[in-house]
């Protein structure tokens, strides 16, 4: 037996652990450690792996490695998928794991050396979704003249103001519905995806715009998340993505049916047909329809006049001249033959005479004349039916044009106000005692501003 009392494994391990924890450099403060990932296998929660030296100039006996652990909470903030052989920087501290009596590195942050972590994460996500064919799906067509547009964006006043201004300037008839969401932060991606799905559930939208202003790659990372890309790809409604600037490309841009550089350009894309151009096009179609109908009627009248002036209808006896001459020749031949025939051939002669009467040209002419009268009736009925159809189409277009006429809107009880010949859109343009003109369907009325109400505050004429 030794003279001194031996230590237990527990005592020795606790002693070593206290030594580690007393060290101000490796435990009491975190530090960065560089190495190559090895023994990494993706687990559902905590991640266990090793780091080894990646310096090829060191001899083999000096190429060391250290075990490392990264718990689930810290690993959830890693944007890329770690792989064996990847050179990384890890941030954390060293401590002893007493159950195995070994020391290991406790990681709180992980980044890729050289190429940034976000770039690696983007490439991995792009490769994954590209392999699934998510970016190769047929792109839906953005309608040039939508009725309702849904916009998923933040409550950023600048973005909303720019888009509203652009839509009102190009086509004020388009109805805009905003679906507010966070566009930055750890919980932003699920909120964006939820709002995209909500737009599709609400339905009755022609276009969906996903918009966000500019920022750094980290600021735009919400739109590189898998859940956002899949929500856009699954959208039944055509999607326009306008995230960041022209140089920024996100997973949302690749999954969308159309990508625009800014929210303003997205609004221009969604309102490709200006209201004034549509009205001008309708007028052009109306003129073409009228001109086409007139030309068809003129051609039909010309054909009818040509038929009526044809000699067949004016001098039908001219058709009989040749036939009459042939009949005379045949009659003469018959008479000469009859004089040489015996009495027993009299019956044959009568039979031939009856056949000749049945095939007379006049009888044939009567039948043909009946056919001509029938064709004339069909022609007149067809022209009348075509005219009625074209007239109905023209009336429908006139009704649509009338519905878009601003005076029609005034006739329904709406009005607008002008101050010094300028349309008043906001109360901030007015002050007490201003003289304004109210425009109604049947005229105008002058009024004086007595009281202004804005955000619960009254500004009266005091």
Automatic annotation (TrEMBL):
Give start and end of each OB-fold nucleic acid binding domain.
Answer: 7-111
User: What enzyme category does the UniProt record give?
Assistant: hydrolase
Compartments it resides in: Cytoplasm
Under CDD domains, the record lists: ExoVII_LU_OBF
Presence of keyword Transmembrane helix: no
User: Which Gene Ontology cellular component annotation is one that this UniProt entry carries?
Assistant: cytoplasm
Q: Which UniProt keywords apply?
A: Cytoplasm, Exonuclease, Hydrolase, Nuclease
- Which stretches make up the Exonuclease VII large subunit C-terminal domain? 138-447
Q: Which GO terms describe its molecular function?
A: exodeoxyribonuclease VII activity; nucleic acid binding
Under catalytic activity, the entry for this protein gives: Exonucleolytic cleavage in either 5'- to 3'- or 3'- to 5'-direction to yield nucleoside 5'-phosphates
Instruction: Tell me which InterPro entries the record gives.
Output: Exonuc_VII_L, Exonuc_VII_lsu_C, OB-fold_nuc-bd_dom
The GO biological-process annotations, alphabetized, read as: DNA catabolic process
Described function: Bidirectionally degrades single-stranded DNA into large acid-insoluble oligonucleotides, which are then degraded further into small acid-soluble oligonucleotides.
- Family listed: Belongs to the XseA family.
What is the name of this protein? Exodeoxyribonuclease 7 large subunit
């Amino acid at each position: 037996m030794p003279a001194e009392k031996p230590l237990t494994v527990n005592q020795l391990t606790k002693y070593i652990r206290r030594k580690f924890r007393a060290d101000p450099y490796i435990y009491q403060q975190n530090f960065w450690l560089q190495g190559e990932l090895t023994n990494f296998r993706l687990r559902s929660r905590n991640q266990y792996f090793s780091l080894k030296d990646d310096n090829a100039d060191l001899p083999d006996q000096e190429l060391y490695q250290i075990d490392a652990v990264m718990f689930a909470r810290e690993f959830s903030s890693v944007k890329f998928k770690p792989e064996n052989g990847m050179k990384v920087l890890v941030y954390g501290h060293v401590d002893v794991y007493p159950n195995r009596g070994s020391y290991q590195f406790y990681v709180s942050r992980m980044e890729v050396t050289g190429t940034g972590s976000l770039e690696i994460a983007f490439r991995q996500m792009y490769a994954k979704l590209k392999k699934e064919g998510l970016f190769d799906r047929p792109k839906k067509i953005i309608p040039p003249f939508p009725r309702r547009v849904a916009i998923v964006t933040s409550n950023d006043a600048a973005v909303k103001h720019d888009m509203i201004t652009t839509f009102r300037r190009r086509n004020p008839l388009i109805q805009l519905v905003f679906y507010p969401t966070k566009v930055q932060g750890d919980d932003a991606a699920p909120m964006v995806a939820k709002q995209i799905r909500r737009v599709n559930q609400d339905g009755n939208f022609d276009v969906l715009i996903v918009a966000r202003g500019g920022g750094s790659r980290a600021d735009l990372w919400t739109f590189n998340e898998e859940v956002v890309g899949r929500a856009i790809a699954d959208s039944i409604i055509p999607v326009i993505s306008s995230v960041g600037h022209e140089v920024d490309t996100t997973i949302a841009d690749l999954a969308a049916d159309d990508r625009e550089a800014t929210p303003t350009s997205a609004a221009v894309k969604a309102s490709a047909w200006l209201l004034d151009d549509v009205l001008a096009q309708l007028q052009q179609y109306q003129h073409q329809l009228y001109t086409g109908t007139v030309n068809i009627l003129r051609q039909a009248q010309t054909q009818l006049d040509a038929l009526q002036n044809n000699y067949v209808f004016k001098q039908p006896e001219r058709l009989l001249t040749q036939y009459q001459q042939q009949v005379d020749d045949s009659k003469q031949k018959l008479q000469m033959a009859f004089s040489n025939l015996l009495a027993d051939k009299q019956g044959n002669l009568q039979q031939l005479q009856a056949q000749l009467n049945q095939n007379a040209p006049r009888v044939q002419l009567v039948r043909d004349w009946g056919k001509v009268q029938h064709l004339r009736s069909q022609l007149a009925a067809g022209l009348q039916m075509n005219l009625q159809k074209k007239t109905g189409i023209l009336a429908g277009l006139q009704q649509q044009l009338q519905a878009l006429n601003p005076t029609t809107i005034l006739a329904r009880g709406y009005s607008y106000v002008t101050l010094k010949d300028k349309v008043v859109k906001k109360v901030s343009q007015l002050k007490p005692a201003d003289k304004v003109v109210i425009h109604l369907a049947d005229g105008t009325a002058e009024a004086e501003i007595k009281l202004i109400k804005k955000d619960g505050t009254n500004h009266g004429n005091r």
